Amino acid sequence: xxxxxxxxxxxxxxxxxxxxxxxxxxxxxxxxxxxxxxxxxxxxxxxxxxxxxxxxxxxxxxxxxxxxxxxxxxxxxxxxxxxxxxxxxxxxxxxxxxxxxxxxxxxxxxxxxxxxxxxxxxxxxxxxxxxxxxxxxxxxxxxxxxxxxxxxxxxxxxxxxxxxxxxxxxxxxxxxxxxxxxxxxxxxxxxxxxxxxxxxxxxxxxxxxxxxxxxxxxxxxxxxxxxxxxxxxxxxxxxxxxxxxxxxxxxxxxxxxxxxxxxxxxxxxxxxxxxxxxxxxxxxxxxxxxxxxxxxxxxxxxxxxxxxxxxxxxxxxxxxxxxxxxxxxxxxxxxxxxxxxxxxxxxxxxxxxxxxxxxxxxxxxxxxxxxxxxxxxxxxxxxxxxxxxxxxxxxxxxxxxxxxxxxxxxxxxxxxxxxxxxxxxxxxxxxxxxxxxxxxxxxxxxxxxxxxxxxxxxxxxxxxx
Length: 465
What we know:
Immunoglobulin-like; 13-stranded parallel barrel; 1 helix; 465 residues; 37 strands
């Protein structure tokens, strides 16, 4: 009896082993395809895209034979497929083990089109097995652009809003030359492409959303379009001068504005009027012994919002610097740090510092920062740091400063903050203590280009209307 039992178990084992090694041929085989459509957000022509994928799952206890996985547009398609290492446009006789799966990888590279508007490119992938044909739709939006690889601006140059501008490699504005960027331009910068300015940049954005000038990374697909450090940033070297940014949005960089050394003339090295700097991984504005004037600017959710060291000359009027810990950046550094020195071989080297902060808001939350404004001094150089009519979040008030009319540790009551949805509206609620708390600074509009009163304006970059 024991021998018969062992024999029966052996027969069952052989039966099920053979069954697992055989192919299921029923048209009702349990097969799951994890996507019915793959969508590629705006892809710049000739620049390619990310690779997307889906899986084909064989949920049967027998092997499955796919007679083909075929790109319906064939070899002339904008799309390319790779099925578990086998390159398309058609791959035949693919075996999927019982209760196993395989990947289908898809990439798109869109050819140039005469239109300057986004255009849609479609195709499909047909998966055939056991007499069944199942299609996965492919959809991509393409956009033409001006492409610059290691671009040198070696003469005065003007960019207009006819097509977007894609920067690959780097963009260098040479000394004694000016790059003018007019209203409505969108500049998309690759991950390895710093913008380096030895000359001058003049940005002529206007107040309406579509008329502003935008700088961002060139990955427009989810989730990458919202990642900080998507591109290096804009760097103003020693000889750069007279840079002016009007109604400009700079987002998702590593360091959005980085300025080094004083201007070579009496004007600020960088002037920022009605600008938004958002989601910079390391710093929104970083300056080493340079000169910056910012009016009606929002610097939000950066690793370090404003970081001024080594002295310099600065004016920040009606600006909002605010950060909240979120899925991308942990708020662990103050939104404003000011010092008159840098450490060289662990020795502080100081320079003259003149800084004025008037009618501003410095606030952070949902992080580990108690003092959102930090000021440090070393040596005996000129040190004039003035905070005049501001709201800040500070437990230890900075020393060696001049201050007047400070609202301390009162929530500015921004309109809407939702870190889960990554939604931030830094306009003021009606009950905000920042309303009518400012002094006349000669600023007649706000970041929205709405009027400001001469008397008792609101603090920060937005006026409550």
